[in-house]
Queue: 2 jobs
Job 1
Amino acid sequence: MVQLTECYGQPNDVFSFSEGVWSGGSGVDPYPKRCMQVENGTEIEAQVWAKPQPGEAMAVFVVNSLLSSKAFEIDLNKDLNMTGRSYHVRDLWGRQDLPGIVAKTLVVDPVVNHDSRMYLVKPAGFSILV
């Protein structure tokens, strides 16, 4: 999992799930505070979660926690460390392929407040049947 933030001077933080705990650090007791941990009273505006899939694909989950709609722009190479030049995108919940080929940036139309979207992004040339 990769969190798209600029925590600790890094462009992205990579977390792993082990023994029931999400951690990006040493796991020293108590588990170190990480960027994905929310302080009481902190508002999280939006989140992008990603998980590698077979065939160099990436599952992308977008969450809007704002009180209004929010559009997203996700740089597939920089933010998700994908290495292709162009991609096919499938809206998993809408059960349809998005038209055309995405070159570098996945642009997500405004997501209404407290809603989410889920996509499968595959390098162009791979089948995206789901």
Job 2
Amino acid sequence: MNPSIEYGESLDYVHWKFKYNTSDRSFHDLVKRLNASGVQIKSQDQVRRYLNRLLGIKMQRVDCCFNNCMVFVGPDLLRRRCSLCKEFRYLGGEDEDAQGEFYNDISETSKLEAKAYFSYLPLIPRLRLLFANKDYAHTLRYPTTLENNPAPETLHDIWDAEMMKRWKREGTNTHCYSD
């Protein structure tokens, strides 16, 4: 079977998942329910692997607080609990007397299951794909094309604002207008 046909409807559902910020667990439940009712949809992991093979985009999984207070990245990557609400990061196995605020090493977390997480498609590979498409690349040049062909006496957006015009004259934000 042609992969684009095989994954077509599943890709639509994954797009819906990201558009409406649906949790991974909710989406997994939706896929199970659809499959049980006869609508065969690929799992998010299957679609992720397909996109990775096809486009070279690798979805990243990021742990977050169960109460949506924070994400566990950067300096918080090894944190045991949310720094705001103090909720434990992982299901079960957490000892109230656990040693320290942080795990010593990422390997200590490898077998633990996060209470909450989200999937993230990194921005740079997505932008590269958009710029690789001639029509999208033209659209993405929007600030420059708006500046070169302004509508008289019309305020369109931030690029028309007085502060932006002043900064451009002063040369303080020229990086916004480079080609």
